[in-house]
Write a structure and sequence with these properties.
CATH topology of the largest domain: Rossmann fold
Largest sheet: 6 strands, antiparallel, barrel
Radius of gyration: 19 Å
Strand order of the largest sheet: 1-2-5-4-3-8
Number of helices: 7
Number of domains: 2
CATH architecture of the largest domain: 3-Layer(aba) Sandwich
Strand content: 25-35%
Order of helices and strands: HEEEEEEEHEEHEEHHEHHE
Shape: globular
Distance between the termini: 21 Å
Number of strands: 13
Structural class: alpha/beta
CATH superfamily of the largest domain: Nucleotide-binding domain of ferredoxin-NADP reductase (FNR) module
Helix content: 25-40%
Length: 284
């Protein structure tokens, strides 16, 4: 509770909520929030905190969960701003009794009705900073809703910056074909950037029913390993990682094989980190 009291809490009104996956599959919803606060502004890739009311299992009065801002726009007729987030309805299995329980934040947001007021905090600074040099290479690696900050990132460098000279690569893993909706904004698909000479995106599905999206990410990297390995060795390449915590070990596994040894890969990874070219945004 103390964390929530230490930062401003804003009121956001739910303007729209639409399911973007078919029935019978994991539910993913696109939510549009309106914040009636002139001072509230954000940049590409930032996130907000959503406060879920009610006590949790540990006695806390409120529960906060961060969500990346997919896109937003200032209204010309109002003083506030609209922003869009993607929410996947989540459930978890209790390791002790095997019971399934709904995720508090995701189910709260997916069940919210248009017109409802939702308390938010932020925006929070993104760990992903666009390089100042347009000749730098950008390597993005992600799964699930981790793709959200990358979509706005790509839109920014090609639309608002007028293009990018360095090579831009996106490697993405998904459990099902419908999960690839994370890659695509309904109204502004990433395919719009496929004509850019410097941009390429690689996605893959897991070929095992019980495998997670991190296994699909491994497939995406392995299927295009020469491209990924060549880019990650360059001294002007920035590496951005987003998604589930399992993304990091999946990346390590593939790169250790490409490097020939764990020590070689760890040395290269540390060099990238020391140069300020390694950033990650992972969640459990």
């Amino acid at each position: 509770m103390s964390e929530l009291l230490s930062e401003p809490i804003l009121n956001a009104q739910l303007r729209a909520s639409s399911r973007i996956t078919d029935a019978g599959t994991d539910e993913v919803r696109e939510l549009v929030l309106y914040v009636d606060e002139p001072s509230f502004r954000f940049r590409e890739g930032q996130s907000i905190g959503v406060i879920v009311p009610g006590k949790d299992d540990f006695g806390s009065t409120n529960h906060k969960r961060r969500y990346s801002i997919v896109k937003g726009n200032e209204s010309s007729s109002e003083e506030g701003i609209e922003l869009t987030i993607l929410v996947r309805r989540c459930f978890y299995i209790d390791d002790f009794n095997g019971e399934q329980y709904p995720g508090k934040a995701s189910n709260y947001l997916c069940d919210a009705k248009v017109g409802d007021n939702i308390s938010i905090t932020g925006p929070y600074k993104s760990p992903f900073t666009i390089p100042t040099d347009k000749n730098a290479n950008i390597l993005m690696i992600g799964t699930g809703t981790g793709i959200a900050p990358f979509r706005s990132f790509i839109e920014h460098i090609y639309k608002q910056k007028g293009g990018w000279n360095g090579q831009v690569r996106l490697f993405y893993g998904a459990k099902t074909g419908l999960d690839l909706l994370y890659m695509n904004d309904k109204n502004d698909d990433l395919v719009n950037y496929y004509h850019e000479e410097t941009f390429r995106a690689f996605n893959a599905l897991t070929n095992r029913a019980l495998s997670g999206e991190e296994k699909a990410l491994e497939n995406s990297l392995k299927n295009n390993l020469p491209d990924a390995w060549d880019l990650i060795q360059r001294p002007d390449t920035y590496v951005f990682i987003a998604g589930l915590e399992k993304v990091a070990p999946s990346l390590d596994k593939v790169m250790i094989e490409a490097a020939g040894s764990e020590d070689t890969w760890n040395t290269l990874k540390q060099k990238i980190k020391d140069g300020g070219r390694w950033s990650k945004l992972l969640y459990s």
